[in-house]
Design brief:
Number of domains: 4
Pfam family, one: MoCF_biosynth
CATH superfamily of the largest domain: MoaB/Mog-like domain
Largest sheet: 6 strands, mixed
Strand content: 25-35%
Radius of gyration: 31 Å
CATH architecture of the largest domain: 3-Layer(aba) Sandwich
Pathway: Cofactor biosynthesis; molybdopterin biosynthesis
Strand order of the largest sheet: 7-4-6-5-9-8
GO molecular function, one term: molybdopterin molybdotransferase activity
Number of strands: 26
Structural class: alpha/beta
Keywords: Molybdenum cofactor biosynthesis
Protein name: Molybdenum cofactor synthesis domain protein
Shape: elongated
């Protein structure tokens, strides 16, 4: 039996206190910069626009020449190649403003009569005209360090002529699956009784990437203490190590004792359901999370411990995503335990799918989110408004 179970909040706090954000920087091409976090301010190398340009279809004019124009008292301008006294030039949106012009008369306020334009409205200087640097000025700070780049941000940087940006390096996440009963995914090997396909590794790999990390998954390792030690030692260049399986209290559950031997075992056994066998520790200053082998228990531990750790390391502040919904049915929880309850979502209503069953992965595949029921609360009642954490 587990000698002492720790609370989820205390365990997470203990882990986060020993870790910090990854501050290494690297240069990346803009085409690969979506979602990356800037490691330095970005200043504009040019004016945008780089020339005065028409912001409307119409006629480029000298604003003073339209003074007093109304539908009842129009002013007539001659169509020419250069704007000036009594002259105008046809323009389309985005075109450079012709010489002599300082405004654009919209088509709606102009009537072409042969080689003359009847102006029926007055325009002020720079009306309907985007001036040099109006969007972005040369030397202006566009984005500050720590900004997470979105597609429109990258489009703006590209339009200014930038090719590369300096960003924070993604935290390296090593994923080590363990278990002699596991068979590699996507292999032709037929499952024998007692065997299972190793699915936790790919789940860890994908979530590490979604949350801002750079994952790498090792082959499956046997339940052998010496082999697992070697695997950990070979991956200590990572910023975080996730070990899948071997976390309970059986004869071949070596991960927690290896953590204690190679470094510091912070926690083994957490008051969460599912996910009680989770272990947390530090080896050579690197955090290690030992995930239970059952898929839903592994997912619960990933969300409760790995997500806040990886997002902190990756300078991500946009997660988690939470919505409020009304419970369609009661959620039963275990007193004294943080409960990871899966729910489906539709039209603002959350329907509990299953609150137990650490190995029932389909309960998560059918869920849009989960509700965390605190240790001090005995379940959630039907009709109650709850916060639903969306499953990415």
């Amino acid at each position: 039996m587990f000698k002492k179970l720790a609370s989820a909040s205390e365990s997470l706090k203990s882990l986060l206190e020993r870790c910090g954000p990854v501050n290494r920087g690297e240069t990346v091409h803009l085409s690969a910069a979506r979602g990356r976090v800037l490691s330095e301010d970005v200043t504009s190398p040019a004016n945008l626009p780089g020339f005065n340009r028409a912001a409307m279809d119409g006629y480029a004019v000298r604003a003073a020449n339209t003074r007093g124009a109304t539908p009842l008292a129009p002013i007539y301008l001659k169509v020419a190649e250069e704007a000036g006294e009594g002259r105008c030039v046809p323009v389309r949106t985005g075109m450079p403003a012709p010489p002599g012009s300082d405004a654009v008369l919209m088509l709606e306020d102009a009537l072409l009569r042969g080689q003359e334009v009847e102006a029926t409205a007055e325009v002020h200087p720079y009306r309907n005209l985007a001036r040099v640097g109006e969007d972005v000025a040369l030397g202006e700070t566009i984005f500050r360090e720590g900004h997470r780049l979105r597609p429109p941000d990258i489009a703006l940087l590209a339009s200014l002529g930038l090719t590369n940006v300096q960003v924070r390096e993604r935290p390296k996440v090593a994923i080590i699956p363990t278990g002699g009963e596991l068979v590699p995914l996507f292999s032709d090997q037929r499952l024998l009784p007692g065997q299972a396909r190793e699915a936790n590794g790919i789940m860890c790999e994908m979530y590490a990437e979604i949350w801002g990390g750079s994952p790498r998954k090792t082959p499956i390792f046997e339940d052998d203490a010496g082999i697992i030690k070697e695997a950990i030692a070979e991956n200590l260049d990572a910023d975080l190590i996730l070990i899948s399986g071997g976390t309970s209290i059986g004869e071949e559950d070596y991960a927690p004792s290896i953590l204690a031997e190679m470094g510091e075992l912070l926690v083994h056994g957490v008051r969460i359901t599912p996910g009680k066998p989770t272990a947390l520790g530090i080896i050579d200053g690197k955090p290690v999370i030992c995930l239970p082998g059952y898929p839903v228990a592994a997912l619960s531990a990933l969300y409760i411990f790995a997500r806040p750790l990886i997002t902190m390391m990756a300078h991500r502040t946009d997660l988690p995503r939470i919505v409020t919904a009304k419970l369609e049915g009661k959620i039963v929880s275990r007193p004294g335990y943080l409960t990871f309850a899966r729910v489906s979502l539709k039209d603002g209503v959350a329907t509990p799918i299953m609150t137990s069953g650490a190995g029932i992965l389909s309960s998560v595949a059918r869920a849009e989110g989960y509700v965390l029921v605190p240790e001090e609360v005995e379940g959630r009642e039907k009709g109650e408004m709850v916060e639903v954490n969306l499953i990415e």
